[in-house]
Amino acid sequence: MCRHLAYVGAPIRMGELLTDPPFSLVRQSWAPRRQQHGVVNADGFGVGWYPSPDPAGPVEPARHRGAGPVWADETFGELARVITTPALLAAVRSATPGMVGGQSAAAAAPFRRGRWLFSHNGALPGWPDGASRLGWGLDAGVLATLDAPTDSALLWAITVGLLARGKTAAAALTEVIARVEEAGGGRATLLLTDGQAITATAWGTSLCWRRLPGGVVVASEPYDDDPGWVDVPDGSLLIADAAGTAVEPVPAGARPTFTDRSGVDA
Ligand code: GLN
What we know:
This protein is an alpha+beta fold. It is about 20% helix and about 30% strand. The protein has a 7-stranded antiparallel sheet. A 6-stranded antiparallel sheet has the order 5-6-7-8-12-13, covered by helices on one side.
């Protein structure tokens, strides 16, 4: 199981979210408090962050990722110390058994396309046998350009396809969950941001959120003992931005878009 965290709102120094708190994401890489699967998160790490608002429009976020444990990466701490950003998504990874291990930075979240950043905490059982059930409708070109041979990369490819079809972030994640369930189920706690809002699902693993001055943070587990942390009930869809947070059950029975399994949109 991985641990991940997203923030949007007033510009904040990355270290305030990722390295400075007593139970920060870096500490969660070796001593998570709420993790139920796996022990340490040493099979890769990543952070993606957005530049300060640009009058020319949204700018693609930058990323720094690595294949090993975040605690061994000097650059992560240096970036966290000096960079101020209005939005970020960071993760530390514990590779699911049977998937590429800690030798591939490409398997580490956040995954990125355009202005979007994404991460997945969970696992789809029976990998890779279930992959074909989950990936139906994706063409070979998409599969050939997967970031990594992992369930997370496949879920991201599906999400990208739905966003490209004009789905909202909430509709896309709802449909991804519907497809996961249709393919046999699994744990799929997802974080998705465009730097303006965070859309997330709590699906089989822990998730919580907390309001900060001018912003909101959504994370696998609290990074400190502030009473402002709110647990997200399992089975929820969360949408949060600097103005507010909405949590509701993931709409049941969302119908997958790719109804024609030959890969043609129906
Ligand atoms: N199954 C994913 C992977 O192996 C995510 C793992 C996790 O949440 N720990 O990368």
